Amino acid sequence: MIDKTDLDKRKAFILATVVYEYINTAEPVGSVTLAQKYNLGVSSATIRNEMAELEAGGYLVQPHTSAGRVPSDAGYRTYVDRLMPAESLTKDDSRRIRDQFREASRELTDVIEQTTRLLSGLSGNLAIALAPSRDTHAFKHVQLLWLSSRTSLVVVVTSAGVAAQRVVEWSNDVLADDLTRLSNALNSHLGGRIMEDIASADLDRICESAGASAEMRDAVRQAFAQARQTDEPEIAAAGAQNLLDQPEFHDLRKLRAILRIVEEQRTLYDLVADELAGDLPRKSQAHVRIGHELGPDELSECSVVTVPYSFGDRGVGVLAILGPRRMPYARLMALASGTARSLGEHLNDVEIR
Amino acid sequence: MIDKTDLDKRKAFILATVVYEYINTAEPVGSVTLAQKYNLGVSSATIRNEMAELEAGGYLVQPHTSAGRVPSDAGYRTYVDRLMPAESLTKDDSRRIRDQFREASRELTDVIEQTTRLLSGLSGNLAIALAPSRDTHAFKHVQLLWLSSRTSLVVVVTSAGVAAQRVVEWSNDVLADDLTRLSNALNSHLGGRIMEDIASADLDRICESAGASAEMRDAVRQAFAQARQTDEPEIAAAGAQNLLDQPEFHDLRKLRAILRIVEEQRTLYDLVADELAGDLPRKSQAHVRIGHELGPDELSECSVVTVPYSFGDRGVGVLAILGPRRMPYARLMALASGTARSLGEHLNDVEIR
DNA sequence: GTTTGGCACTCCATGGGTATGACTGCTAAA
DNA sequence: TTTAGCAGTCATACCCATGGAGTGCCAAAC
Lengths: 353, 353
Prior knowledge:
Chain A is 46% helix and 18% strand.
């Protein structure tokens, strides 16, 4: 039903306008409002017909029979992906970001916290920041175990215990001897090193000299990446009180759900960590998840903008903005990206421990 | 008007009962309810007369003409100080506290956070924990400067910059030479030391060997104490969503005020730091502040239970519970004291860095 | 075929009016 | 000093009528 082809130019414009108007007013938007405020060159009756089709297509919904329309998840999605004009940082915003980082702390925890305050202040929503994990555990042991000719188990042990264990499926048969040789090579080279200091490049070099396949190399990399992330990640959030301004959170149940999520590190982490899970995150590219795309049902009326940031070879973190679905996506994406870029630069500059 | 003497036995019982009932029901309590639920041996009319006098005495207030009575700040205060039966920890609570600390982290930040979660869970309110400040700056320089024969300026400089500067008034004339000699002695003995490791006893010894007066010794001590505290204190809060259950926070403005306070480290700090300001805090002695006693107007409908905790000679922190004035004081005081005691023991046991 | 004006219909939000009930304070008698 | 009784007050809940916003549909116009 939802299909690119069923959005001709006029429908697209109407959809975009409905979303835009709803984002600004928080009121369901009706055909007359649309015809009056934006000169569509057609009458409200025509708009009514189009809106009925947009509703049939799943882009709009009606809160009740005699109300205007409100965007659905799919409506917002289409708006964000195809209809919304991109925005770049306003002069004022970028100045405020610059000022903030000019006098920012040198301590990672503090920087992360200050960044969430900045971002929540600028965005008027809840801001979240996930710090790059800084794992100081010592490497102990790694073992690639032969399970069958096409599957293996990779185990990484650090001073904190088993830090990663994952089953790998090979596309070609492997020999137990090859796995043992690679394990030995890794162990002899890495013994006693701090997890944090083991760069992907190191792993690649060892794998190569041990004659491991590209596939094995990737498996080792991923296992080590996982082992690093086992460390409790540092995460901060700020600006929950901003959400009180939004009419959608005047319902106490929704508010409670949000507050619980903010206080539970774990849920908060899950919310933003997806951003890290993908392949290499594209630099400072903001990413939006809307309503049910977020997973948890309590968040079905929320959206999240996430953007990764990175510094040096020390790892990658995530900034995020959580708010009602009815959020100014383009602006928030620009804000998040800009802040992420500045944060990365700042972290590089001050050479945080 | 408010005076011990105007509380005869029956008035005291009625006041206590009103407070108790209101704490449990959150509804203004009327004379008939009182007569029926608690057998006072007198009729509701008599109780009405007594309540009218309690209101005249400032212990009770009426939300509006035809409503029951609600305790005033003074009413709560009298209840807490003189009428309320003390409680000790229930078996269940003390087990939960014990269990929590048995498997608690060894990392100070984590312990503090876990403690706030525990305490907010047990109390059903917002819990706050202030960690003992742990200053790792290096000592650089101290100077006692002669301003006049009776006044001096003491400056302490650490690797973080000027950490303390205070004017002292002497009760007797002092000589510039004496101040210089003392300054030199301190600098030569303390050069390069970490602030945290400089014990009061060290300072005393140096002062004594330099022939300084008791007054000077105290001035030096205080300057160093101030220099240590300059470090941003670590503070954590948890359980804001608990407050949503309380009817007094269904008003969005009040809720927003609370959320702002929770997110602003500074305000939060001010709220609990009073506990440290007094003389030596009595060990694990819980302390209650009610409504306007707290200072900030936004908190005029809240109460706070604070209790200091200490471990070794490493410093002192504070646990606190913030909630509506209508809180079960005796229970919360027992909870806070018990948790503070266990926290102190835990910190001693694991010898946190 | 598309667009438009007109019209009937639906549903929510609002406001006034009224009933209800939980109090109190007062008075007069015990 | 206590008590019963009673009149008075005020917040709350509820009902119902009204108004308004918006839709869907149809027949006519383009």
